[in-house]
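Renewal narrative, Specific Aim 1. Our central claim is that a sequence can be written position by position from structural information alone. The example that follows is taken directly from our test logs and has not been curated for this report. It begins with the structure tokens describing the chain, in the order in which they were read.
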């Protein structure tokens, strides 16, 4: 065997390479995950922790779509394995090369697969295609990490698979859902309607024993899809990272590959795991962090309970809001949020005639006089027709492929183009006004349109290609976030992309996530688990107004998953006699009870233990948080009577059990396979404290 050591210093990246071609088959391993190529460059994925094979044999996982054909069979011509050390870490890199010759086409395919020591069970892939023929090729698209998973042979569960899916649609569907037969969801990461789009570029499918996730690991948003498909498959489901050349402009991607030219796919990945999607999302987060992405630590202020004036909706009066503040303070809330309805229009962020008798600065001072912090609702990127920005700063408006201004349906507004320097400066100046001149302590950035924008075709003189607007959207949020924290270092920046599947490209530029208009308590919990995986186990996650939960009263779903609690009650009765959110005596007792529980334990500051329970297959649904040496469990079901497992306890340690909602003593258990008999409706909360 011949060894070569070559030191290469390029853009701060150091690679150390060792050539090795002794294996019979090209193979790379990461933890318990092994990827093997056959002589057609098809791959087999083996995860030793799975009870049965996740996929059947070798599959064409990386394919090229060219001249209306799908090309999947490339004859193996060579491979080598190398050690690698770069900004992500050290590990092994496998390069596999194959050729295809048919119908006058000659194409070389080179697959690079990299496994890093600090990212077990994850393999990063990238594919290059070179046209070695005499004629140009029309590139229609490509698929990477395309795998068809098989169900367990003997599965006694109601569903063969559960999934995490990241497409954003007007239906505001669940991000976590079971997969039955004949299911398909494209999970396109661009716009899926006029103002719904974007997401986190990861799709995960799992069985009761194990699962696979695929995605792309680029640091900018890209207009790809992550389809989950079981159509026409018996007890199987397929996932992939998929690129369609028609989804982007010719300026961004030249569809004709001339002789001698080559192009590369995005950097994509496959990761295997036990349990649900939490492990794969956490591994994706670690991969981004290794590339330099920073998810901000939440300030103490981000964990404080929130009251929002949205109970009065847009037609609130200043008197209504101010008269509610004494009760807000009395009940223990620390934040008061002024919601939609204070502005002249989206695109004209001056105060409207509600403030004829007082200024916004005086209003904020009044909030502060009660010992409360003030947060302001705001919808960036939106401008109503007729508003000041729409009419006077028309060049900032985004122009779609049809040559029209892009609609934001909820406010009858139009998008601004985030790629323009004028748009960024406009938003920064607004933040300065809100927080420096008016004195706000935080921002509630709101709207389903926030998650993604379409390509802009109206500013060719100022951007290289239309998709620049898509790529620059996170940069705009960074400008907003940095400006806010420069003014007030403990400012809370909440981004609420109403109903959207949150974009991982946005999360680094907020320090408080939110369930963003959940349709029910289930969505509060599944979104909480997602944000904890993506942003960190102690991320400040706000469960949104309790009035959006089941029965408008389910504080337990926020508390049990480590969420910040909040409400939009109205008070006193005389202020809004017909309000469905009136703080009655009964509701006040409920708020006071959960406020005491929340402030006693402050579970959002604990470590969310997301890998202990499978949100899909485990019943009852369970979540766990470790804090101050104890583990806090929360179990959820419409009704349940039976045994629940208390996972994550230390072997040999004795624990005292308490219902931390009611204070009831529940006895004691040993950490060795601990469990307890219980019967409950909706939920039960159990604290396990070491003796």
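The sequence written for that structure reads:
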């Amino acid at each position: 065997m011949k060894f070569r050591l070559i030191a290469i210093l390029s853009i701060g990246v150091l690679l150390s390479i060792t050539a090795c071609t002794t294996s019979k088959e090209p193979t790379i391993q990461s933890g318990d995950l092994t990827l093997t190529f056959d002589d057609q460059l098809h791959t087999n994925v083996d995860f030793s922790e799975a009870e049965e094979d996740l996929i059947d044999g070798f599959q064409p996982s990386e394919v090229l779509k060219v001249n209306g054909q799908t090309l999947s069979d490339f004859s193996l011509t060579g491979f080598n394995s190398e050690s690698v050390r770069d900004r992500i870490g050290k590990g092994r890199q496998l390069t596999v090369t194959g050729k295809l010759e048919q119908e006058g086409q000659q194409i070389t395919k080179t697959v690079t697969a990299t496994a890093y020591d600090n990212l077990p069970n994850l393999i990063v892939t990238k594919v290059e295609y070179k046209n070695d023929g005499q004629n140009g090729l029309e590139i229609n698209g490509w698929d990477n990490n395309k795998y068809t998973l098989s169900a367990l042979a003997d599965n006694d569960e109601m569903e063969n698979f559960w999934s995490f899916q990241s497409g954003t649609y007007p239906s505001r569907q669940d991000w976590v859902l079971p997969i039955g037969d004949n299911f398909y969801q494209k999970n396109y990461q661009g716009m899926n309607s006029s103002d719904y789009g974007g997401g986190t570029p990861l799709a995960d499918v799992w069985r009761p024993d194990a699962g696979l996730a695929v995605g792309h690991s680029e640091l900018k948003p890209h207009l790809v899809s992550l389809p989950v498909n079981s159509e026409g498959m018996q007890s199987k489901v397929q996932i992939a990272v998929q690129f369609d050349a028609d989804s982007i402009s010719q300026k961004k991607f030249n569809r004709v590959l001339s002789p001698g030219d080559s192009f590369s796919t995005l950097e994509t990945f496959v990761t295997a795991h036990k349990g649900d999607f939490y492990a794969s999302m956490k591994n994706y987060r670690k991969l981004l962090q290794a590339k330099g992405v920073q998810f901000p630590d939440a300030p103490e202020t981000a964990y404080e309970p929130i009251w929002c004036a949205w109970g009065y909706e847009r037609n609130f009066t200043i008197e209504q809001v101010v008269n509610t503040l004494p009760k807000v303070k009395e009940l223990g809330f620390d934040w008061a949020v002024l919601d939609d309805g204070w502005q002249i229009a989206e695109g004209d962020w001056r105060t409207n005639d509600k403030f004829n008798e007082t200024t916004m600065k005086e209003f904020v001072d009044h909030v502060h006089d009660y010992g409360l912090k003030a947060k302001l609702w705001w919808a960036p990127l939106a401008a109503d027709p007729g508003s000041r920005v729409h009419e006077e700063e028309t060049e900032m408006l985004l122009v779609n492929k049809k040559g029209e201004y892009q609609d934001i349906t909820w406010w009858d507004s139009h998008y601004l183009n985030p790629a323009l320097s004028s748009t960024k400066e406009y938003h920064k100046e607004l933040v300065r006004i809100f927080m420096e001149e008016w004195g706000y302590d935080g921002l509630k950035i709101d709207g389903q349109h926030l998650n993604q924008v379409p390509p802009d075709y109206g500013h060719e003189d100022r951007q290289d290609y239309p998709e620049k607007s898509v790529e620059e959207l996170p940069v705009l949020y960074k400008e907003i976030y940095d400006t806010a924290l420069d003014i007030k270092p403990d400012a809370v920046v909440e981004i609420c992309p109403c109903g959207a599947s949150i974009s991982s490209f946005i999360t680094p530029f907020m320090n408080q996530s939110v369930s963003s208009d959940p349709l029910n308590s289930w969505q509060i919990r599944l979104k909480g688990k997602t944000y904890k995986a993506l942003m960190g186990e102690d991320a400040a996650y706000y469960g949104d107004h309790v009035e959006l939960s089941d029965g408008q009263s389910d504080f337990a779903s926020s508390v049990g998953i480590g969420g910040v609690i909040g409400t939009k009650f109205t008070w006193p009765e005389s202020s809004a006699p017909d309000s469905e959110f009136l703080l009655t005596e009964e509701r006040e007792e409920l708020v006071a009870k959960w406020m005491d529980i929340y402030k006693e334990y402050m579970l959002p500051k604990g470590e969310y233990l997301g890998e202990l329970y499978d949100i899909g297959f485990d019943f009852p649904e369970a979540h766990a948080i470790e804090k101050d040496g104890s583990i806090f469990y929360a179990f959820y079901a419409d009704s349940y009577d039976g045994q629940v497992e208390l996972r994550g306890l230390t072997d040999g340690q004795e624990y005292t059990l308490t219902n931390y909602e009611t204070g009831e003593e529940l006895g004691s258990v040993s950490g060795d396979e601990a469990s307890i008999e219980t019967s409950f409706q909706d939920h039960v909360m159990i604290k396990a404290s070491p003796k």
